[in-house]
Amino acid sequence: MRRVYMDHSATTPVRSEVAQLVTGYFTETFGNASSVHAYGREARKGVENAREQIASLIKAKPEEIFFTSGGTEADNMAIIGTVMANRDKGKHIITTQIEHHAVLDTCKYLEGQGFEVTYLPVDDYANIDIGQLKAAIREDTILISIMHVNNEVGTILPIKEIGQIAKEKNIFLHVDAVQSFGKIPIDVNEMNIDLLSASGHKIYAPKGIGCLYLRKGIKLSPLFFGGSQERKRRPGTENVPGIVGFGLSAELAGKEMEVEIIRLTGLRDKLINGILEKIPESQLNGNRTNRLPGHVNVSLRYIEGESLLLMLDMKGIAASSGSACTSGSLDPSHVLMAMGICHEVAHGSLRLTLGKISTEEDINYVLEVLPEIVEKLRSMSPLFNSMEIDNREECSTCTLTK
Amino acid sequence: MLYLDNSATTAVHPEVVKVMQDVLEKHFGNPSSLHKKGIEAEKILQISKNFIAQTLQVKPQEIVFTSGGTEGDNLAVKGIALQYQNRGRHIITSQVEHPAVRESCRQLENLGFEITYLAVDKIGCVDPELVKSSLRKDTILVSIMQVNNEVGAIQPIQAIGELIKKHTKIFFHVDGVQGYAKIPVQLKLWGVDLFTISAHKIHGPKGVGALYIRDGIKLFPQITGGGQEGGIRSGTENVPGIAGFAKACQIAREIFVTKSKEMSKLRKACIVLLEESIPAIVVNGPKDEEVSPYIINLSIPGLRGEVLVHALEKENIFVSTGSACSSKKDITSPVLDAMGLAQDIKLGSIRVSFSYETTLEDIEVFVNKLTQVVEQLLRKN
User: Fold this and answer.
1) What is the ipTM of this complex?
2) What does the pLDDT read at residue A387?
3) What is the Cα–Cα distance from B107 to B113, expressed in whole angstroms?
4) Which of A21, A354, A369, B59 would bridge A294 by S-S if both were Cys, CB 3.0 to 4.6 A apart?
């Protein structure tokens, strides 16, 4: 059976160059980067080289990169760290309703600590309204935290415009770039980003490694306390193999970005067009063009997402319904709900995310298999069969139409 | 090349590398994903957790994976303090803890907690009587390490645990980073509620560790988000690292059973040889009893530790001054300070730490080279 992996937004396979490099750091260059002897110095060299590779991908300075255990930790560290260190300046935070749970739950926690949070709504395409952002800014706003690319629907948010506003108002801007880092261009200076979270395993590096970009001069209270690693911002023995793997994948992602954007956009559009053409009552979630190359999210009405995933899986296709973290939950996606999509349609959402290993044949295979599965599931669906297609009511709360 | 800095970090065992390579290449799924790749990864996670739980004789659901020892210590100490602060805000720890515990406690002091930092004797051991006399009505946590990372002193965990058992509202955290898989661990018998372990100290990968949290204990999470690890530790699980960790635990356990007596003999032999060859040598910390068989901390009065480290490095022998975490600072180790050692002993201290692979021949090479180096350096002085 053909195996097609279309869940690159959940995680990616480690690329072989990276796996090879990482392995060398397990066995030969295994030193503790804090040790003063040769083993330690070699490990240190690997860490500092990776810091440069990562910094250069987002036009930052190497000393502005701090390694973490992943994107979630970086998000927690960025938000809690800045507001705690700057709480004398204000207690108001602005974010959006469609952030990753790492940001949302952190904001919820901070509300319990006396901070106030504005969760900006989004439009049908999961985009924010700049006017609403401006209106939400208060005297005591200290941080804006907005993701670059939404993990569920792939929408690219207008970070440059947001950055301009944040800069004018002298508010720190944190960007969760876990889904965009290494995939589309980021320039922290041009976009006026003060803090940025990135993760290794979304760009073909191992799990368990990520980083936080922290603009020089910004105060940050650490999450963890201990040794003086990462200039005390993040203590703990550095995950040297993970770090060097992350560095190399960042460098390679930068080199391949231009070509990959074109290739993946082509594949993505073919997949979107094919689904919308072949499957009746299907709709694209998110914007047609303003979306991450390789990111597809569709709603297939009268389909229950979980059964769809299972049947795809049996056909060798790995996909997801929303983000991986919430895939165990039965609640409909908070992102789709914020976009004004009704429960029923949200439940039938399918996320197909392409990456380095995706090919035209993969797309063809999905376009062959998916319509069959949808038809089969719909034929078993009491909801679908209860009415004639023409008589089916339009979902009143749903703002999206095909 | 003779690497004798295994308390700083260890080389990953070849079998562990094999396991991780396999996971990196074949089982790259996100354990939260519902498809086959995700389910495979979830299974690896569960098997690894079961195995590690077994080595500690605890339940799998009592294990939470972390990014390493520092995170584990932070999660345990701050997690208890913030969760149970309504019961009281007093914590007891020692003056010789790893910075991850010490600095977490300092941070809690800033938040209004009161911390008692117990003194130690001249070999680095905590007196259980001191713990007893420090207990207060508002004490919520006692955090004491199993094995000191700098001098190898084994703390009287069982005795302390027995004291605390009588106080059902006080939690007992043990930093087991230097003890686990090297000396016996009996969490239930000792009444330990939380136990921190780290993979890269036992020939597993860096970037992964675990925290044992006794059933029924709630911790205030340090990282929130996707709700992984029962909501106590969010973030996509480091599946290859965790699988490697479990393999390392398995290997370490096999080695532990067969090697533990041998390692103690080796350490003793090393000290005997050192004392014969370098009469001026001073061994810091416990000599033969209540000490990790993997660590020797020694000083040559009149010679600075870092000078010795560099001189030994020229002979391809790798040791450290104090712990790796503080080896960059030009200040004396808080552990040696707490032991009340003289300044020249503190400045002259080096740590030699073995692995299960260290042999008697290695020890002889080390002693011979150290003897030569010391003679040369003393002559120069």
Assistant:
1) 0.93
2) 56
3) 9
4) A354
